[in-house]
Specification:
- It is elongated and about 85 Å long.
- The protein contains 16 helices and 18 strands.
- The longest helix has 19 residues.
- It folds into two domains: about 200 residues, 3-Layer(aba) Sandwich (Rossmann fold), CATH 3.40.50; about 260 residues, UDP-N-acetylmuramoyl-L-alanine:D-glutamate ligase.
- By secondary structure, the protein is an alpha/beta fold.
- It has an eleven-stranded mixed sheet, sandwiched between helices. Strands 4-3-2-5-6-7-8 form a seven-stranded parallel sheet, covered by helices on one side.
- The structure holds ligand NAX, adenosine-5'-diphosphate and potassium ion.
- The site of potassium ion has 11 residues, from β5 and β6.
């Protein structure tokens, strides 16, 4: 599990660590890790040209000490001080003693620029002087120390000039900004340097491969299809026939024992949708019956309210997707049952009356507020999908190529999450595992290129088999 802690949690853990470590030891650990990461990035240290951009606090201190380590190994290290009278004394002395230079303006070229402007003590966007300097050096490779300066650490908010890093070297633990967009986009690759901090449970996490393997449902030796769980799909309509097929294809990934498909309207009206579903998935059973979870909404059009009411009449977990999201409140909400809502930013904006740009600008806060408001798990789908529990916990999915942003991918995901719910996972696990498997299946189906929603669905069984082979 990748764990991200808030600034307040990190401060508390650092204070406890300061009390039992010699003065400056933690900063030296951070600086050593940073210098190693910089050396790995540079490939060669001797003769490398390094620019440090240093602010007023300990983030600058880490940066100066790391610069000193590189200078001692033969790098040419220049340093711009943004707050010369508040610079970390020990760090600056170490850099100078190692042969590093303080410059007023950067030279013509560097192999890397290091952002030591602010870390967890930062607030708000870069101030004008720093913004102008960083802007003039945007062609350089940037390494952010702890966090990219100018980006919100706890919320991942980006509301003004900031550093856009290629690599972020962070200390002690991840922070929410490293996982949650839009901030995560400014971090580039994130590398964690362990400081040996004693940390509390993390409010924001990202499942890793072995976590997903441990959570995947597996049939007991004496399983039969009903003990593995039946997932019911109420999706598709005369106008959106394919959505029914794709929703069923996600549900029929093999993680549950059986799929029931229940189209809207009479059997005659639904005949074309049924024909498509049966042609693609002859194993799906058409018609109502007992299920352990419902998936409702993709391509449901005008029938969505009727379909959602029918699903909610059963006291089983439910995935509310696509068109069903906009009728959730008129249908009485999820009424306390385990449920996953799966909006993208546009859908969440409509559900909550907030402009889409505001949802996209605060994905962590938007998903959390929606989970509290609707009283269930909310999965805000995007590049880094945010799965929020009503109690405030969050899991972020960081796998999945941008090719996954393709029509119908959401239908497959809804079906997949439904299968996991039917198999007995909690709503929180089903949503976070489903989102991870969905992203990884897209990468497996076509590692570096375009992928269709149907191909993502077809790759799910092989992806799960690989996870189970590797084991937790
Ligand atoms: N002290 C230590 O031994 C350790 C320090 N660490 C480092 O210390 C950092 C936190 O240090 P600090 O608490 O000193 O805080 P920072 O160095 O993150 O920044 C605080 C300073 O920046 C100024 N500032 C805040 N927002 C600004 C903005 N938008 N533009 C310009 N200036 C701004 C503040 O006035 C303050 O003086 C961590 O991010 C990490 O890099 C960690 O490595 C752990 C060990
Ligand atoms: N830039 C991106 N990188 C990775 N995955 C993405 C990106 N944009 C969207 N996705 C994923 O693609 C899927 C799109 O689903 P959705 O928006 O519901 O599309 P549709 O309604 O057409 O099925 C979601 O799983 C989402 O997380
Ligand atoms: K920084």
């Amino acid at each position: 599990m990748r764990r991200a802690h808030t600034v307040e949690q990190v401060r508390t853990a650092e204070e406890a660590a300061f009390a039992v470590t010699p003065d400056g030891a933690l900063m030296q650990r951070a600086a050593a890790g940073l210098a190693t990461a910089l050396a790995d990035l540079l490939g060669h240290v001797y003769g490398a040209r390094v620019l440090l951009v240093v602010g007023a606090g300990n983030n600058g201190g880490d940066t100066l000490h790391a610069g000193a380590r590189l200078a001692r190994r033969g790098a040419a290290v220049d340093c711009v001080l943004l707050s010369p009278d508040r610079t970390h004394h020990g760090g600056l002395a170490a850099l100078r003693a190692a042969g590093g230079r303080v410059v007023q303006t950067p030279g013509p070229s560097y192999d890397v620029a290091v952002d030591g402007i602010v870390g967890i003590g930062g607030s708000g966007p870069l101030r004008p002087e720093a913004a102008a300097l960083v802007g003039s050096l945007s062609h350089l490779t940037w390494v952010a120390v702890d966090t990219p300066s100018g980006v919100g650490v706890d919320g991942g908010l980006v509301d003004g000039p900031h550093v856009a890093a290629d690599l972020t070297v962070t200390f002690g633990t991840h922070k929410p900004v490293h996982l949650v967009d839009p901030g995560a986009r400014a971090c580039g690759v994130v590398h964690l340097v362990d400081l040996g901090l004693d940390l509390p449970p993390a409010p924001v996490e990202a499942l890793q491969e072995h976590d997903v393997a441990a959570l995947l449902p597996q049939p007991a030796p004496a399983a039969h299809k009903y003990t593995r769980g039946v997932v019911g799909v109420r999706a598709g309509s005369a106008d959106y026939r394919g959505a029914g097929v794709l929703s069923v294809s996600g549900a029929a990934c093999g993680l549950a024992g059986m799929v029931r498909f229940v189209p809207a309207g009479s059997l005659e009206e639904a005949a074309p949708v049924i024909a498509l579903v049966q042609a693609a998935h002859p194993e799906a059973v058409v018609g109502t019956g007992r299920v352990q979870a419902w998936v409702v909404g993709s391509g449901g059009g005008d029938s969505s309210a009727e379909q959602l009411r029918a699903a909610l009449a059963d006291d089983v977990p439910v995935v509310v997707d696509a068109d069903a999201l906009s009728v959730l409140e008129e249908c009485g909400g999820v009424a306390g049952r385990p449920a996953v809502l799966t909006p993208h930013a546009g859908e969440l904006a409509r559900m909550t009356g907030v402009p889409r740009e505001e949802v996209e600008a605060d994905q962590l806060g938007s998903a959390r507020r929606a989970a509290a408001r609707f009283g269930c798990v909310v999965m805000l789908k995007s590049r880094h999908t945010v799965v929020a529990h009503p109690d405030g916990r969050v899991r972020v999915t960081t796998v999945g190529p941008p090719w996954l942003a393709t029509a119908g991918a959401g239908d497959v995901l809804g079906g997949l999450v439904g299968a996991l719910l039917a198999a007995g996972l909690s709503a929180y696990d089903a949503a976070s595992v489903g989102s991870w498997v969905h992203g990884a299946a897209a990468a497996l189906a076509r590692p570096e290129g375009p992928v269709s929603a149907a191909e993502v669905a077809r790759a799910i069984p092989e992806l799960c088999a690989r996870l189970l082979r590797e084991g937790p």
